[in-house]
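question for whoever is on the cluster today: can someone run the full assembly for these? two chains, 610 residues total. i dont have access anymore since they changed the login thing
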Amino acid sequence: MFTWVVDILVLFAIAISLAGALARYRGNLNIPLGIVSTIGFGISIYFWYMLYLEVQAAGGVIVLKALPALASSCLRIDMLSLFFSFLFLLVGFVASFFSMRYMEHDTGHPQYYALLLSMVAGMVGVSYAGDFFTLFFFWELMAITSYVLVAFRKHLWEPVEAGFKYLVMSAAGSALMLLAIALLYGLTGTTDLAGIASAIKGGAVTPTLKTWLYFAIAIIVAGFGVKASIVPLHTWLPDAHPAAPTPISAMLSGVVIKTGVYAVMRMLGLVVYPAALDWTVVAVVVAFFAALTMTVGNVMALLQEDVKRLLAYSSIAHIGYITLGISVGLIGGAIGFYGFTAGLLHTMNHAIMKGLAFLAVGAFIHAAGTRKLSELVGIGHRMRAMAVIFTIAVLALSGVPPTNGFISELMLVLATVNAGLYIMVVVMLANILIGFGYYLRLLYIMVWQSPRSELAVVKGSSWLMLIPTGILAALCILIGVYPAPFLDFASQAAQALANLSAYTAIA
Amino acid sequence: MNVATIGFAGGLLLIILGIYCLAAKSNMIRLILGVEILTNGAIVVLVTFGATPLGTLNPAIISLAILAVGVGGCIAAVGLAIVIQAYRHYRTLDVRELKRLRW
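^ ran it for u. tokens below:
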């Protein structure tokens, strides 16, 4: 119905919840359900590849009627959708694999895996949506499941409190998004994404209505920006991401905030490009928020004593880097294309390395039973294989050469130089240096220092944790050493974003 | 003053009320209500725009509005479930008491 990629995820979610409800065995179902859920992600990735070949053969865009009864609803899949949906499925696969060991002491496994699968189905659906009905439906599927997953450990106070805060802020953002949809419909008379771009290009927005268009853009960026945690709207993130179970933290920090990035990119591309608005104004405003976001994220990360909270603030900083890529991209032309490519490559790299960092830290937390940096001193000595993987993740986050973080941060700086935003170059470089400060502190405390005596009981990590993190660590190194195919993938996605005439061509 | 203007103004009024409620209230159930008022304001604006051009209703907009009503119900359900859990931990509905995470 909504392509096999989404359908498989939904079917597995239904199957897992039914199995959980009907099973006579009342013991711990974590391992079998985890295997089923991971297989579901695997099959979904296979269908993603089939879809990729189909889109390539069709010349870049395909349109599917999702619900024949509702004529206005459709899926419109191009390279940008495929780029993001691949990240969602990859990190979902790894998080589900990792949960098999991590969630062993929790209860409610059928609900957990069903919610995880539904959340990824929602994210993939957002990236495939071709009209506002489908977009809103999948957006709320993703949002509501993520509220429940943040508050999943309801017997502890922290997840409940963080979940409530997340729900109120994010639901208010969704309401603003609905208002923006209403305004865009009022201006153009359609809910189809391609139709909106065509209508704006065709002059549906008269100069007297241009103020309303600016208003709609501001609201839509605010609505999606809550999910992407662009700075004045970020306050839920450092509470919600650490409070969730660690595989869910990896999902939230790695890819759920990227859904916001996708939506902001798509909306700006659809509305701002064809409307022939004043480029430099929009680009400078976005660049201002990018600078604010990366600075706040990095400075706050310096002050944290909780390792997951530190990584959550570092996610805000990286969203700032990606937003800088978007702002350069908004300039248009060859310079903008390079900026979008750099931003998209950093999106991919950040999803991989932040997911990896959260999972590796999760393995430490699972073994040591604490999240405080002062109590995790030297844990790397007790879990050497995981320490190597954690070191790769942290070096990639700080942008050290043989890893993927270096490639995309270099590209972002070069793109900013190309665009002539020299102040932003200085801000970005200063932020990368601040980032070095806390990443090296993290490595020094957790891997370098000699272990505390309380950690003597900690044993090495299990294969069920080493395999999924190993996959991501190998990708970190691979993209750093041989970036050509990934760069090509990112530039195809940027091409799809910039080339609106192809997106709107098929009705 | 025609129907469209009244609908649009009413929707915006509801949105402002919702934002005020989110900013000024400290009771958790009132915060959930604020979110619902905000969503309903957006739905009213949506339906107003969907109804205006020819005096007929656009089915695309009506289906979106009905979906949004359902989603609002889901958010209320999840939100109130979290409120119940928070009440069991803190024995209060005042978010100012939930300050272990620095609101």
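summary bc i know u wont read the tokens: The interface with chain B takes residues 70-73, 131-133, 136-137, 140, 144, 147-148, 151, 154, 157-158, 160-165, 167-168, 171-172, 174-176, 178-179, 181-183, 185-186, 189-191, 239 of chain A (CB under 8 Å). The first helix of chain A runs from residue 3 to 22.
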